[in-house]
Amino acid sequence: MAKLLSFESAGKYQTWLGLSLAIALLYSLPALQQAFAAEYIVQDDARQHVFWMQRFSDAALFPHDLLADYFQSVAPWGYKTLYFWQLSWVYRRCCLIDCCLLF
Predict the structure, then answer these.
(1) pTM greater than the 0.70 cutoff
(2) Are 80 and 50 in contact (CB under 8 A)?
(3) Which percentage of the chain shows pLDDT scores above 90?
(4) Nearest Cα to Cα of residue 91 among 51, 45, 57, 60
């Protein structure tokens, strides 16, 4: 069985891969610099997909809100679980700090 790639052809592929990544980087860095030039930058998707997660701390938030219900229904379970754990960890830390400050 013949080898599919010889050392010479593998080197050519690596060269072209490196050049294509360099060109992609060359054009993407100025675009990212312009995108993050403002002081207060928030990705629009974050506002849409994260606001309803305040329901984890207060279940009565956003009653009968169709947008909140929709974004909650389309969020993947891993995404929900990650934010739920993160929020519960933050609240435990805050409650622990508040209790320590009381004494």
Answers:
(1) no
(2) no
(3) 17
(4) 57
